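PROTEIN DESIGN WORKSHEET
SECTION A - STRUCTURE
LENGTH: 112
TOKENS:
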């Protein structure tokens, strides 16, 4: 019995090779899209989490305890919060910035 073949532009070849090439390309595209969706989802989740953490209701009414004996805990919290937001903003600009804003055109095709 002969092997089952698939017709391609380069001639007949076994069906398993033809299907494997298409399947591996589809799985690669799927993995890339999955990674992009997960990365975008994590960035959105991080923005929402930091937005919720900005509402400092648990340290708002008291300056105690003091950190290092003289710095109010709310001030230390907000210093750490600012560092976390700065890191998130760097990640957003680095990985989620729309590239069409960087092409230098003003929208009508003419560059400045």
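SECTION B - SEQUENCE
RESIDUE ASSIGNMENT:
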């Amino acid at each position: 019995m002969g092997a089952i073949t698939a017709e391609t532009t380069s001639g007949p070849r076994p069906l398993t090779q033809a299907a494997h090439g298409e399947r591996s390309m589809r799985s690669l595209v799927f993995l890339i899209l999955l990674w992009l969706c997960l990365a975008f989802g994590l960035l959105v989740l991080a923005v929402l989490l930091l937005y919720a953490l900005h509402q400092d209701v648990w340290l708002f009414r008291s300056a105690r305890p003091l950190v290092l004996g003289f710095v109010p805990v709310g001030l230390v919290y907000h210093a750490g919060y600012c560092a976390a937001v700065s890191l998130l903003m760097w990640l957003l600009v680095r990985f989620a910035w729309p590239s069409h804003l960087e092409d230098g055109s003003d929208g009508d095709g003419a560059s400045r």
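SECTION C - NOTES
Helices lie at 15-54, 73-96.
Residues 1-53 form one domain.
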